[in-house]
Specification:
This protein is mainly beta. The protein has one helix at residues 103-107, and strands spanning 9-11, 16-20, 29-36, 39-44, 49-53, 59-69, 74-76, 80-85. 5% of the residues lie in helices and 42% in strands. The strands form two sheets. Strands 1, 3, 4, 6, 7 and 8 form a six-stranded mixed β-sheet that branches. The longest helix is centred in the last third of the chain and has 5 residues, at 103-107. The termini are far apart.
Amino acid sequence: MTSPAAGSSATVATSININANAADIDGTIAKVEFFAGATKLGEDTAAPFVQAWTPTVAGLISLTARAIDNKGLATTSAMVSVTVNAAPPPPPPPPTSSITPSQADAGATAH
């Protein structure tokens, strides 16, 4: 894997790209699969090998890529740990006001 770098961070609900390089000296790379822990995120069948990932939970997540060649042989990358931070809370809504007559105005009469 070429990115993200080990020790980098991401944010819940914000997409990042996972990138990998792969080559085969006696054939071709059929695909590269991308994983967060044991969960397969997707695969790419052509270089440059990239997978978009949108984390759904905060915590320390282990990412790997597995290259599979045209003969079915596979090699898994070194694990890269990424810290996923919780999404920041949304900004508060703008203040609203409603104008209501005061009690003095409500009881006033014109003579």
